[in-house]
């Protein structure tokens, strides 16, 4: 399948000399939901702003639907809707007028039926004549989504769509994204929230210090998430792992007082029963056992720390 977005060796050094993107290459497939995860300042906004053509790269290329976003900016931009992080600063304009205007910016004829459909879809219809200053933060965010969708883009970028919103709006946003995905819109979102990536994404990319350090199917990440640890606190010091237990991949803890067994929590067999029998046969006694699940959060933190 030809990717709908193709990013090649993208680099960005800001005028002050700070390098915010380091040789980022990535393909996005049509119809997928791609979540870009990364800590503050990792380069998420820079990356999506560069893809959308709002920030000029220092080097590298971006193709959107086959159009180079620098040499064929208008054709490339036409395919893209962007929901920015910042809230709109306009105060007095009405919701419907603002959204209508966004379509006009692409040189497209007004489409009142579509406008109504989008406002209804986003639960903004009742507020269609309200001025922006009358809206709650959550409602303003919906207006941003409406503005990004009114020229019927094939690709939607959402920059931190749920930062600072309440749980209810977060769930609503997730529903909105899922409906758009059903309509075949490709979605790229940036987020701090691992939970959000878990909920929505088909694939996850992790960016840190301007480098894309991992791109993986969510399912594969989830199976990593499924790794669990069983900690066995031994009653007596164990100088080394006995021969009969070598097949279990155990790690001996500090001072030989604990054993760590890692297993796949989503696998059919955990091997725990066999291990406990083998421990008994080897004459090992233990004071306590407990399990610990490595979360995607931990995987993410480890990844970021290691890079
Ligand atoms: N216009 C600019 N001039 C100079 N440096 C910039 C500019 N914009 C961003 N940066 C720097 O580039 C780095 C990446 O910023 P960016 O906004 O892309 O990160 P982010 O991952 O989106 O972070 P956040 O989650 O906090 O929004 C940061 O260190 C930031 O200070």
UniProtKB/TrEMBL annotation:
<protein>
    <submittedName>
        <fullName>ABC transporter ATP-binding protein</fullName>
    </submittedName>
</protein>
<keyword id="KW-0547">Nucleotide-binding</keyword>
<comment type="similarity">
    <text>Belongs to the ABC transporter superfamily.</text>
</comment>
<dbReference type="InterPro" id="IPR017871">
    <property type="entry name" value="ABC_transporter-like_CS"/>
</dbReference>
<dbReference type="InterPro" id="IPR027417">
    <property type="entry name" value="P-loop_NTPase"/>
</dbReference>
<dbReference type="GO" id="GO:0016887">
    <property type="term" value="F:ATP hydrolysis activity"/>
</dbReference>
<feature type="domain" description="ABC transporter">
    <location>
        <begin position="5"/>
        <end position="234"/>
    </location>
</feature>
<dbReference type="InterPro" id="IPR003439">
    <property type="entry name" value="ABC_transporter-like_ATP-bd"/>
</dbReference>
<keyword id="KW-0067">ATP-binding</keyword>
<dbReference type="Pfam" id="PF00005">
    <property type="entry name" value="ABC_tran"/>
</dbReference>
<dbReference type="InterPro" id="IPR003593">
    <property type="entry name" value="AAA+_ATPase"/>
</dbReference>
<dbReference type="InterPro" id="IPR050763">
    <property type="entry name" value="ABC_transporter_ATP-binding"/>
</dbReference>
<dbReference type="GO" id="GO:0005524">
    <property type="term" value="F:ATP binding"/>
</dbReference>
<keyword id="KW-0813">Transport</keyword>
């Amino acid at each position: 399948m030809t990717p709908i977005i193709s990013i090649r060796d993208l680099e960005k050094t800001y005028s002050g000399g700070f390098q915010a993107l380091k040789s980022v290459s990535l393909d996005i497939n049509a119809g997928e939901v791609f979540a870009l995860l990364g800590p503050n300042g990792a380069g998420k906004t820079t990356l999506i702003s560069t893809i959308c053509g709002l920030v000029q790269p220092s080097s590298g290329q971006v193709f959107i639907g086959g159009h180079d976003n620098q040499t064929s900016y208008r054709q490339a931009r036409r395919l893209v809707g962007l929901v920015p992080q910042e809230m709109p600063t306009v105060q007095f304009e009405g919701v419907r007028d603002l959204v209508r205007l966004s379509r006009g910016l692409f040189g497209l004829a007004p489409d009142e039926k579509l406008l109504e459909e989008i406002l209804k879809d986003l639960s903004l219809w009742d507020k269609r004549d309200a001025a922006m200053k009358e809206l709650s933060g959550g409602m303003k965010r919906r207006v941003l989504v409406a503005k990004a969708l009114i020229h019927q883009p094939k690709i939607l970028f959402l920059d931190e769509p749920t930062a600072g919103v309440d749980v209810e709006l977060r769930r609503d946003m997730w529903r909105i994204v899922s409906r758009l995905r059903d309509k075949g819109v490709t979605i790229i979102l940036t987020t701090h929230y691992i939970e959000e990536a878990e909920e929505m994404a088909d694939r996850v990319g992790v960016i840190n210090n301007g480098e894309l350090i991992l791109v993986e199917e969510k399912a594969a990440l989830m199976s990593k998430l499924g790794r669990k640890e069983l900690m066995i606190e031994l009653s007596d010091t164990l100088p080394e792992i006995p021969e009969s237990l070598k097949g279990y991949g155990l790690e001996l803890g500090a001072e030989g007082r604990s054993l760590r067994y890692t297993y796949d929590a989503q696998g059919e067999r955990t091997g725990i029963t066999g291990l406990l029998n083998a421990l008994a046969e080897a004459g090992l006694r233990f004071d306590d056992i407990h399990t610990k699940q490595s979360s995607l959060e931990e995987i993410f933190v480890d990844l970021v720390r290691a890079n």
